[in-house]
Specification:
By secondary structure, the protein is α/β, with parallel strands linked by helices. It has four helices and four strands; from the N terminus they run E-H-E-H-E-H-E-H.
């Protein structure tokens, strides 16, 4: 199952984002794509983000930019639709300041396979 990890970012904190990138790179489950959605103040940071996390992650990474500064639900919807269009079957939101245990994605996939009706919050 392909997993789509998405991180909406309004204001960039490079230290936190690099920490998240390092924990995504260490995942034991490797069939995923990471999407960063930049909006608001962060919308001009694409080159800087790529430069900051280059060398940390050698994974499939997408960065989208939107001028939409609407509600958070609409921004998450943009992420979800983009990942569904990339054939992701599981969508996992992580905040830029989150850190993931090395088996996080593996455990989410395992639970989804065992419980087809599972929904995580």
């Amino acid at each position: 199952m392909k997993v789509g990890i998405f991180t909406p970012v309004h204001k960039v904190n490079y230290g936190s984002l690099k920490g998240l990138a390092a924990t995504i790179k260490k995942q034991s489950y490797t069939n995923y794509i990471w999407l960063i959605l930049l909006n608001g103040e962060a919308s001009n940071e694409v080159k800087n983000i790529r430069a900051q996390i280059k060398g940390i992650v050698d994974i499939e990474l997408e960065i989208l930019v939107t001028s939409d500064t609407g509600n958070v639900g609409r921004l998450k919807g943009i992420c979800c639709q983009h990942l569904i269009n990339l054939d992701c079957e599981i969508l996992l939101e992580v905040d830029y300041d989150d850190l993931l245990h090395k088996d996080c994605i593996k455990e989410v996939v395992k639970e989804a396979e065992e419980n087809e009706e599972a929904v995580f919050f």
